[in-house]
Input
Amino acid sequence: MNFFTRSITKIFEGAAKAFATFPAAILCASAFTIVTMIRIQLDWSQQEPYNFLFNCLHWAFASGAVFSLAAITAAQSILNHKRAFLIANLIGVSAAATIFLMLYFLGGTQSDISEPRYAVISTIAAARVSVVILISLLIFIIIAAYPKTQSDFARSFFMTQKSFIIALIYGLVIMGGASGVAGAVQALLYHGMSEKVYMYLGTLTGFLAFTIFLGYFPDFRKGIIDKHREVAQKQPRFIEILLGYILIPILLALTIVLLIWAGRTIVSGTWPVFLQLSRIAIAYSFGGLWLHIMVTHYESGFAHFYRKIFPFAALIILAFEAGALLTQLGKYGLKITEYYFILIWIIAVTAAILLLLLNSKAHQPIVLLACALAVFSVLPFVGYHALPVSAQVDRLEKLLVSQRMLEGNQLSPATSEPDLAVRESITDAVHYIAYAEDAKLPIWFDKELKESDVFKSALGFEPVWPEPKNDYKNGNSNYLGTSLNLKSEAIDVSNYQWGIPLQESYERKGRSATIRSEKGVYEINWKIDSTDDIPSLEIKLNDHVILAQDMSSFIDQISAKFPPGQSEPKEASPDDMSLILETKEITVLLVFNNIEISISPQEDHINYWLNLNALYLKENS
Output
């Protein structure tokens, strides 16, 4: 019991010492907490005009806290005198202020969602601040590995993760206990307690967890030997067993599977989807690299074998992935997924080569390369927001010029319909460019080309998406679907006496309405069958059913004209999206806003979603 008491006491003593050890980081975290509590206090209508300001402050204080951590650690471990400590803290606070000013004056953009008068932080500005936070954390881990007589990168890397997990566990326990007490107060003493109390508790708990995170680190001052460093860097026995005797065999088995899969794929020539390949490569490379660093000092036979075999296996698998990447680039050009995969591929290949040559000495160069590529990814012209768009613009220009649709910055419709492959490529490039953010576009490109009617008017043909390659016999298809949206066209409803909105609701599973006329009372019920999701319409006149019709025949009609096969939504005319039902008493017009039919061949299940825009009714004489 005394051991656990001492451990808990040391944790909170460290949290208290963090205020003196990392004052600038704590100051930024405190400011972050205050801004968060102000936002909690304000309702959205009050907060919205200041939302951009609050977001700028949040990003600035978050980056300032992590940047200060790295700056103070560098000053203490390299110089260790009061002036350097003071300058490091001032630099940390100045960094937060500088980032705030740059975000506030240069990082805003008009939101497409909120009212135009309110700005939001642009995606690229947020990405650049995220890179600052990432690099600051990685540099901290590198600096915390000095002096070499007391630590190295692998130990510092584990210590940082250990500190985070300890802070997370304490934070969750504190939050759970505080929420339990607040819940008891609300249930037993004060029923009118605001839900914002829990938000305040979460905010304060987050701040306390951050102080615990900082407080767990040892004394980094030059010339000081802190006994806590050895404890903080030491891996518990259960972690050694978990990594050395469970995760390493699992990853070795996965390596064998991936090598066999790569060989079979090359022989058969059936390449999987690039997105699937990229995920496998990223997960294996970075998961394997993480484990390689974590077991740097393990002496077991499994660990020795893994450290030798992983770099070779990673190079083979990454070479296999490079072939898939070249195929993808040739077909669709450079997009953001391919862009990031290339950067990750460079890091992974370089890491594998350096591990073969330098062993554990490769860790720091690998991290520095990751920092450099992270900066590269947010630079003007070559960043993730610019280079893929430029590549797609070049791709689109070549396609349009080859079809004589673009001359002298003048876009014109095709005189004859291009081949299917060309139309698919043009559609793909146009929609990627149209949805790009924070990128400079050519003067001839109109972002409204993403709208089907504008696309057809400007280019002379309908947008065409590639047909999915399905193979039901081999179980390779997981989805077939029809997705229709109502075109924005006028509908003549002059012959109808009433128009009733009856939009479908998942929660209520149907809608009802009542109309009173000289003939009596009409009760309209739009119901959804819970077993097959097929809606039905029932109309009563003076409690007598005069119309009862489910939508099965209408769904068959839609499926026949628009066979399931494309997941991309398509616009349909009002005639296709309407259904007329007639009895001797009434005529009803149903107009649907959306129709979704999704089929899962493997599960042998069909889902229907018919979004009824409105029902129009007239009495027959």
Q: What stands out?
A: The chain is about 55% helix and 15% strand. The longest helix spans residues 153-188. The longest strand covers residues 586-600.
